[in-house]
Design a protein that fits this description.
Organism: Micrococcus terreus
Shape: globular
CATH class of the largest domain: Alpha Beta
Bound molecules: pyridoxal-5'-phosphate
CATH superfamily of the largest domain: Type I PLP-dependent aspartate aminotransferase-like (Major domain)
Oligomer: single chain
GO molecular function, one term: pyridoxal phosphate binding
Largest sheet: 7 strands, mixed
Radius of gyration: 22 Å
Low-confidence stretches: none
Mean pLDDT: 96
Strand order of the largest sheet: 4-10-9-8-7-5-6
InterPro entries: Aminotrans_3, Aminotrans_3_PPA_site, PyrdxlP-dep_Trfase, PyrdxlP-dep_Trfase_major, PyrdxlP-dep_Trfase_small
Family: Belongs to the class-III pyridoxal-phosphate-dependent aminotransferase family.
Structural class: alpha/beta
Number of strands: 15
Strand content: 15-25%
Helix content: 40-55%
Protein name: Taurine---2-oxoglutarate transaminase
Number of helices: 14
Order of helices and strands: HEEEHHHEHEHHEHEHEEEHHHEEHEEEH
């Protein structure tokens, strides 16, 4: 169904890409990026005209799918009226987006500072926490992802950290609860959550509460593996931080805006953070947008004292108009409820069944439209499996997953029709035979 014109434009774009585009996170010379010539709803079409089910939502951001007509129209209308305006001027799209976000976020997060994406939201949340508390250290989890800028990548746990002086950067790390690969020799979620909390309390004590401005945590860690925290863990972090005069920053950049089947991940546990970072799903990435939702208490610090920070495009009208239209569409079309239902009715049972039948599957976990399938060479040792061939097979059969280390992340748009979700899981079922062969061979 893709005409020769689009395909030839795609081939030209690919040549130019290889000649001139510098890609994220990659050694440039050996790259073989997929060309996309068309997108629609839960589907994308590649450079050969093949239709793929988009279980990646790209960077887990197209929560409303591709090309939602109401959002496209809102952007077009806004572009024709006021395409851009300085952050100092009042703008109706920005005001309405801030109102909607204040209404949806938990607790008294009643003010919004807009950024261009997730990493700068994290940067600004940390800056607010540091100024508000007068302290510098930021505690964050190994096994996390908070963004690609210097501070955000050093808050991020794991090997992507770049070699800067971490003491100067003012960051320290702790182990989050992750029952499948427990660092605490836990046998179940309850033990894992309890021991992870005790560990965090020790880290706080050893680092010194009087030096710590904030703990930043993804409510449900995304890129690091989609592991849902045990019941009680986030509530415990909230209690610990409050007791020690430390702010709690919830990073909802990936988990937020419906991905987990609630508006925000923290809503599953009734936790109210002091600062909440968002991006991605706020407008499904149709125009870059992120931000920090700010509690009344933190806001008070900047009521009389100027906030030391800003961006040319803070609250960009095109991005904010897209956010207003996106949130409205999500509400009108019940997308968050649908994500919850996809999780309990389709993903949960079906992935469990795939795990039972495929020896290469070590673990399946998630909620809402936010699932990880972890591939292992051996279920006992849990040694990671190289999944290059499995990913290629998925794509060949028409499924585009999000890939992280030895895991496939299944994170489709929240409004993906049931039959498309089932088709995607059928493809995965078939493709897993390739991974099973690698295990058995
Ligand atoms: N925080 C979390 C939890 C994320 O998942 C991401 C991106 O994946 C970021 C921050 C960084 O966002 P961005 O890539 O928009 O800078």
């Amino acid at each position: 169904e893709i005409g020769e014109e689009l395909l030839s434009a795609g081939r030209k774009a690919r040549d130019l890409d290889r000649a001139h585009v510098f890609h994220s996170w990659s050694a440039q010379a050996s790259l073989d990026p997929m060309t996309v010539v068309k997108t629609e709803g839960p589907h994308v079409w590649d450079g050969e005209g093949r239709k793929l089910i988009d279980f990646s939502s790209q960077m887990v951001n197209t929560n409303i799918g591709h090309g939602h007509p109401a959002v496209v129209a809102a952007i077009q209308e806004q572009a024709a009226r006021i395409a851009t305006i300085a952050p100092a001027h009042v703008n109706d799209a920005r005001s309405e987006a801030a109102r909607l976000i204040s209404d949806l976020t938990p607790g008294d997060l009643n003010h919004v500072f807009f950024t261009n994406g997730g990493a700068d939201a994290v940067e600004h949340a940390v800056r607010m926490a540091r100024v508000h508390t007068g302290k510098t250290k930021i505690l964050s989890a190994y096994r996390s992802y908070h963004g690609g800028t210097d501070l955000a990548i050093n808050i991020t746990g794991g090997a992507r950290r770049i070699p800067v002086d971490r003491a100067a950067a003012g960051t320290a790390h702790f182990l989050p609860p992750f029952t499948y690969r427990s660092s605490f020799h836990a046998e179940d979620d309850a033990q894992e959550g309890q021991r992870a909390l005790e560990h965090l309390e020790q880290v706080i004590t050893l680092e010194g509460p009087s030096t710590i401005a904030a703990v930043i945590l993804e409510s449900v860690p995304g890129t690091a593996g989609i592991f849902v925290p045990p019941a009680g863990y986030l509530e415990g972090v909230r209690e610990l931080t409050r007791r020690h005069g430390i702010l709690f920053i919830a990073d909802e950049v990936m988990a937020g805006f419906g991905r987990t089947g609630r508006w925000f991940g923290v809503d599953h546990w009734g936790v109210e953070p002091d600062l909440l970072t968002f991006a991605k799903g706020v407008n499904s990435g149709y125009v870059p947008l992120g931000g920090v939702a700010i509690s009344d208490e933190v806001y008070q610090t900047f009521a009389e004292t100027p906030y030391p920070g800003g961006l040319t495009y803070s609250g960009h009208p095109l991005a904010c108009a897209a956010a207003v239209a996106t949130i409205t569409a999500m509400q009108e079309e019940g997308m968050v409820e649908n994500a919850a239902r996809l999780g309990t009715e389709i993903f949960g049972p079906r992935l469990q069944e795939l795990k039972d039948r495929h020896p290469s599957v070590g673990d399946v976990r998630g909620l809402g439209a936010f699932w990880a399938v972890e591939l292992v060479q051996d279920r006992t040792t849990k040694e990671p499996l190289d999944i290059g061939e499995l990913v290629a097979e998925c794509k060949k059969l028409g499924l585009l997953p999000f890939v992280a280390e030895n895991r496939l992340h299944l994170t489709p748009p929240l409004n993906t029709p049931d039959e498309v979700v089932r088709q995607g899981l059928d493809i995965l079922d078939q493709a897993l035979e390739v991974a099973d062969r690698a295990v058995q061979g």
